[in-house]
Design a protein that fits this description.
This protein has helices at residues 7-20, 25-32, 36-44, 52-61. It is mostly helical and 79 residues long.
């Protein structure tokens, strides 16, 4: 994933990878504690901004770690 990809896009990509490995949404809901309905809405785009705790639960269920990085500051000179 590129650095400009949103966490939501990255999460969706990881869910799709898990599904390709045979992990069903039912199983992911068991592993994460997030309902199947929420997973389906997230993947369909009808849950556009999931809560932080939902992202954390899904990351844990997918065995992912969430990392926050400080962005480089763009400094401009003023006269």
């Amino acid at each position: 994933m590129t650095r400009n990809t949103s966490i939501l896009d990255q999460l969706k990509a990881e869910i799709r990878k898990a599904e390709k490995r045979g992990i069903t949404r039912y199983r992911l809901s068991q592993l994460s504690g997030v309902t199947q309905a929420s997973l389906s809405r997230l993947m369909a785009g009808t849950l556009p901004t999931p809560r932080v705790d939902t992202v954390e639960k899904l990351a844990k269920g997918l065995q992912l770690r969430i990392v926050l990085e400080k962005r480089a500051q763009h400094l401009t000179r003023t006269k």
